[in-house]
Amino acid sequence: MHRDQCLLYASGEMSAEESGRFQSHLGACPDCRGWLELVGRGAAWAGSAAENAPTGVLVAVLGLTAAAPVVAAAKTGLWAKLPGWLKWVLLTAVASAALRVAQGPRDPVPEPAPAFPSNARLEIPSSGPAPRPSEPPRGSQDLVAGPLEPTLEKPDVLECKDPASIRAFKRWVIYDYQAFPEDGDTAAEDWSACLCGPAAAAAGMPALPPRTSSTRKLPGCPSGKESVKEPYIAIAKFFYEALPITQEQAVKMPACYCGPSPRGR
Amino acid sequence: MPEADRLIQGCRQDPELFRELVGLFQARLYSFLIRLAGRQAADDLFQEVWLRVYQAAPRYEARGKAASWIFKIAHNVALQHHGRRAKQPEAAGDALDALPSGDLDPAAAGERAETLGQVDAAIAALPFEQRQVFLLREFGGMPFKEVAELLEIPLGTALSRMNAALEKLRGRLEDFRA
């Protein structure tokens, strides 16, 4: 088999004469044809695997053209010395300002969240379910309501790169789970850690939310004897509607909710 | 002049051309960086690559090799990161992390992520030198001759690394048809 020639043929790096000779060879060599097919599969995988950069990153990149001071810093070599987070802040700020000027105010009306499909595939924790409600209750003094407000507006979808977004997510969880005061702040810490990793702890805790008279009923976790699929779909649906999260984050919620605490408690 | 050449040459003067240039390459470039340097580093590296592209655009010689030029920059940026980290990039983790943020069908996306995740895991397990060649070829679309030049290795070595990578990925690529 001529594997090297297969690669060069597939990438168009043969001359017309070489290519013609190799085509003749291919007709008589099933091994080379098989290898050529494998080469094509690699290319097909790359086509399927290409994914867009996150919107925030793209906005930061596109802000380069409006970022004269930042680019000037780059030219002097200062840029290379800046930590990644500071580059992000600078670029994002410049880009945001540029986009605001260029595009005007954004539509303040958010699009409605799409319905959660019933056949969602779900992440299953490696260890057995450990339903949160069975944990020993914590003292209600752990959760103290803030000043009275009529309601708390549901925040934007959780963005793990943004500490303010993480804090807003935690605040919403605490607010939404005041009907379960033994669990609200634990849930806020656990779920944000589950969805965002170490960034959750680094974001700190939010200002206390207002009180609510919510009587939200939490879904149950599978007992271990039944199939986890249906309960997990129900849990994902529940949290997708209840929390400011994306569908991808909702898919992870059954593991966050029923699995062991990501913070090791 | 090829479209990408025109975009590179004009991107310093016209932000819209820079936007088009980013749009043209962003998915392949971001995917390349994820697989070569790891998902956690990809965002920062992606920005750094485009900053360098923007800086170097006036020196770009239009020869219809824009993709190779951009991916050479990306490779160098990733390699510097690799050197700084002084360790292999992390394996592609949870397949669900591979879901594109805009995907609105968790069922289809989950199946896709599962299959992609299996290939990703196999790619992450490749020796770094084989992974470099595989990714430069498949995401960068670079001819093997240019891959060999970039990596300063003989053409035969680049080809043998690609063949070795494909051999290791053979079982995982069954679901993908050209």
Which residues of chain B form runs of ≥5 with pLDDT under 50?
Answer: 86-106
Q: How many alpha or pi helices of chain A?
A: 12
Architecture per CATH nomenclature, i.e. the level-2 architecture of the domain at 1-90 in chain B: Orthogonal Bundle
Largest sheet of chain B: none
CATH class of the domain at 1-90 in chain B: Mainly Alpha
Q: For the terminal residues of chain A, how far apart are their CA atoms?
A: 57 Å
Span between N and C termini of chain B?
29 Å
Average pLDDT across residues of chain A? 70
Percent helix among the residues of chain A? 40-55%
The residue fraction in helices of chain B comes out at: 55-70%
Give the amount of beta strand of chain B, in percent.
under 5%
CATH superfamily of the domain at 1-90 in chain B: RNA polymerase sigma factor, region 2, helix turn helix motif
DSSP strand content of chain A: under 5%
| Low-pLDDT ranges of chain A | 97-113, 118-150
Extended strand count of chain B: 0
How would you describe this protein?
The complex is a heterodimer of chains A (265) and B (178). Chain A folds into three domains: 46 residues, no CATH class; 49 residues, no CATH class; 127 residues, no CATH class. Chain A is built from twelve helices and no strands. Chain A is 53% helix and 0% strand. Chain A is elongated. Chain A starts with a helix and ends in a 7-residue tail after the last helix. Chain B starts with a helix and ends in a 9-residue tail after the last helix. Chain B has a domain of 90 residues: Orthogonal Bundle (Rna Polymerase Sigma Factor, Chain: A), CATH 1.10.1740.10. Chain B contains eight helices and no strands. With 178 residues, chain B is mainly alpha-helical. Chain B is globular, with a radius of gyration of 17 Å. Classes of the chains: A mainly alpha (265), B mainly alpha (178). At the A-B interface, helix 1, helix 3, helix 4, helix 5 and helix 7 of A face helix 2, helix 3, helix 5, helix 6 and helix 8 of B.
